[in-house]
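Translate structure to sequence.
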């Protein structure tokens, strides 16, 4: 007898874009919608109205038109096992439990709340653990931008176990508008944030007392140097006003300032990866997010130094893998976590 396919709706409220999709329990994204994240005085009203509109429009895309849950991912802190958004850095209107209450009441579906990085980490972990997301991987391939210096997912020329399972210790470092770290140990997502802030301390790459202050409240966070907002701002400071694709072009053209910027950025990323490796000793580190997708030349700069920095005898199994799911990871992970909880 064929097992009944369960389906959930994933909602990923990003700093710039809100994505909603219908996702099966094996991680297939059947349909999705996206729009700029609401801003301004009426942001809360606009957001809930649009989300309900999206959920209503997407529900018929599910097999048998049955959706069993909604997974909601937000950029900030959530109270574990509750419906309350405790703190957001860039979208204060999301704080409190109003969004989960409204979504539950108006969709008549159970809603599970998590952080965006937890959702994306779960999706990438599941994608690596199974081949069931292959259709999505094929779509994401165009943006994965693996460089020749980054080992492919399935190495045949090494002595490491050939299993596709991501191992018992998995880390995901995601470079979006901000930067997030997710860790899964023995199949369980770990709370890596210290509670009062949105960044893990292993992401501090500048420990000087007068290091720049991050919006999360700590000084010297990786986000200040390699997050999307920081990179766009740094590119502008060297006369590149059209964002990361223009920075990538300038690097390819040998622009000396662009090269300096990328070298500095890769240096702090390598530092953070070293911190993560020392702290969590992951068997796999997945690096992903829009910044890396727009700047493939960062890959070539990161790969060799990280390889060099990690003692092979200490971290024999450590591998770096390009994220597979691109900007779909949050939606897929939110839905899969909702199905897991339901
Ligand atoms: Zn921070």
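Result:
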């Amino acid at each position: 007898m064929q097992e009944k396919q369960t389906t959930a709706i994933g909602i990923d409220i990003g700093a710039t874009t809100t994505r909603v999709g219908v996702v099966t329990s094996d991680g297939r994204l059947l349909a999705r919608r996206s729009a700029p994240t609401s801003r301004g005085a009426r942001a809360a009203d606009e957001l809930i109205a649009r989300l309900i509109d999206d959920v209503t429009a997407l529900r018929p895309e599910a097999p048998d038109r049955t959706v069993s849950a909604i997974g909601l991912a937000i950029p900030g802190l959530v109270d574990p096992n509750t419906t309350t958004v405790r703190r957001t850095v860039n979208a204060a209107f999301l704080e409190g439990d109003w969004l989960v209450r409204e979504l539950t009441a108006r969709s008549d579906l159970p809603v599970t709340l998590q952080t965006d990085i937890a959702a994306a980490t779960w999706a990438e972990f599941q994608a690596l653990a199974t081949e069931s997301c292959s259709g999505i991987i094929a779509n994401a391939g165009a943006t994965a931008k693996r460089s020749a210096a980054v080992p492919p997912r399935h190495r045949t020329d090494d002595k490491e176990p050939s299993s596709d399972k991501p191992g018992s210790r998995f880390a995901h470092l995601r470079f979006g508008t901000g930067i997030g770290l997710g860790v899964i140990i023995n199949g369980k997502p770990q709370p890596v944030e210290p509670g009062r802030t949105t960044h893990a301390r292993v992401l501090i790459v500048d420990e000087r007392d007068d290091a720049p202050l991050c919006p999360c409240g700590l000084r010297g966070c990786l986000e200040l140097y390699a997050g999307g907002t920081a990179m766009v701002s740094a590119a502008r400071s060297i006369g590149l006003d059209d964002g990361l694709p223009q920075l990538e072009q300038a690097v390819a053209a040998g622009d000396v300032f662009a090269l300096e910027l990328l070298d500095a950025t890769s240096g702090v990323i390598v530092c953070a990866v070293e911190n993560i490796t020392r702290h969590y000793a992951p068997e796999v580190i997945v690096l992903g997010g829009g910044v890396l997708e727009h700047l493939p030349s960062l890959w070539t700069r990161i790969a060799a130094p990280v390889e060099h920095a990690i003692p092979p005898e200490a971290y024999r199994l450590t591998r770096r893998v390009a994220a597979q799911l691109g900007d779909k990871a949050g939606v897929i992970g939110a839905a899969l976590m909702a199905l897991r909880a339901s």
